[in-house]
Design goal:
The protein is α+β, with helices and mostly antiparallel strands. Among the domains are: 96 residues, no CATH class; 120 residues, no CATH class. Helix content is 59%, strand content 10%. The strands form 3 sheets. The chain has a 5-stranded mixed beta sheet with strand order 1-2-5-4-3. A 3-stranded antiparallel beta sheet has the order 8-10-9. A two-stranded antiparallel sheet has the order 6-7. The protein is globular and about 60 Å long. The N and C termini lie far apart (43 Å).
């Protein structure tokens, strides 16, 4: 009999963090037993293990949500030492988020004052957490946006990679703001191939309140399609925030699956979206006992599920061969069928870009300037 492979310390931290985030809220015996086991394990965590957990939570954009659960457990156990670890980390993260939101509000206000459409994409999906940069989408001209940010915020444009140029995105560095401001202009997708989603994004936005601050964000369907483009067609890995964010949307009944299917089919990524949802559902079920309530047409359209996802290098990895390659081929074929030849040509550059990134990583230790 083959012995099971022991989890690395990093993998153990990912497992523990997943359990904290997806702890079942039910009161049945099975759920209570899972919670009791988790509480017992957390009460014995060392300082080194906590620091590893915090590092992983930062990378996966779940510091606030993960440590709030941890803190409540420590308070219930009257463990002042570990409660203080969590309180200190939470205070630092909340201070970072407060500063970033103040800048984000000022930036969006400056856009609106000039009557430029603007939507916050990705960054606010994680609330009460926040991503490692601030992502915006606009239909405005890049020169106008650069002038606006220089004039109002003394911003500088960061060096652009090949991928940035294809995708139609710019990164701006603003004094006093640790996070970069990444702005997608007129296009979405790794090579800027997605003008279908981009062309309707502004008119489908909704306004949300974050504390006393208001922001325009994509519709739920557009939000899930943007997440899918990022995870299934570009990075090929999930952060835990993607799992938790999508699970929260589903639990709140906020997903119109009919609209999502129609929009994603029109964009040529329905199979990718369905696969994204299947992966989330399977991962949630693994740690909470029940997955998302997905319609049968979503399950049928999914190419694979959570069984194919594996942990490596701090994230949940999506297999590239053959699964992701098949999704890429399906998207490219869809663009060509619709005679979007220019966008198809952009997307056809993706394998070459990926190859250049791999070569650059091996030669210089970095893919900087490519992705």
């Amino acid at each position: 009999m083959t012995k099971p492979v022991a989890e690395s310390p990093s993998h153990q931290s990912m497992t523990l963090l997943s359990r904290l985030l997806l702890v079942p809220q039910d009161s049945d015996n099975a759920a209570l037993s899972m919670v009791a086991g988790l509480q017992s394990e957390v009460r014995n965590i060392s300082r080194e293990e906590f620091d590893d957990l915090l590092t992983l939570a930062n990378l996966n954009h779940v510091v606030v949500r993960g440590l709030e659960v941890f803190l409540n457990m420590m308070r219930e156990a009257k463990d002042d030492t570990r409660a203080e670890w969590a309180q200190t980390a939470l205070a630092a993260e909340r201070a970072r988020i407060t500063t970033a939101l103040a800048f984000l509000e000022d930036i969006c206000t400056a856009f609106e004052y000039q009557e430029y459409d603007v939507a916050v994409i990705k960054s606010l999906d994680h609330w009460p957490d926040l991503g490692s940069d601030l992502d915006l989408y606009t239909n405005a001209n890049s020169e106008d946006i650069a002038k606006l940010l220089r004039r109002h915020f003394d911003a500088q444009i960061a060096p652009r990679s090949w991928g940035d140029r294809l995708a139609g995105k710019w990164n701006f560095l603003i004094p006093g703001l640790p996070e970069a401001v990444e702005i997608h202009m007129g296009r979405l997708g790794q090579t800027g191939e997605q003008v279908t989603i981009a062309s309707r994004l502004a008119e489908r936005t909704r306004r949300v309140l974050i504390g006393n601050q208001a922001f325009r964000v994509p519709s739920t369907s557009d939000r899930l399609m943007i997440s899918t483009l990022q995870r299934m067609y570009r990075h090929f890995y999930f952060r835990l925030c993607d799992i938790v964010d999508t699970a929260a949307l589903s639990e709140a009944g906020g997903i119109d699956y009919g609209d999502l299917r129609s929009s994603a089919t029109n964009a040529g990524i329905w199979e990718g979206v369905a696969t994204y949802l299947a992966i989330v559902s399977d991962y949630v079920k693994k740690y909470s006992g029940s997955g998302l309530d997905l319609p049968q047409f979503v399950i049928t359209a999914a190419r694979f599920g959570g069984d194919e996802v594996y942990y490596a290098r701090d994230f949940l990895r999506v297999p590239i061969m053959p699964q992701s390659i098949q999704l890429y081929g399906s998207q490219l074929a869809g663009l060509l069928r619709k005679r979007e030849l220019q966008n198809g040509a952009r997307l056809s550059l993706l394998p070459w870009l990926a190859t250049a990134a791999v070569v650059g990583q091996r030669i210089t230790g970095s893919d900087k300037g490519i992705w």
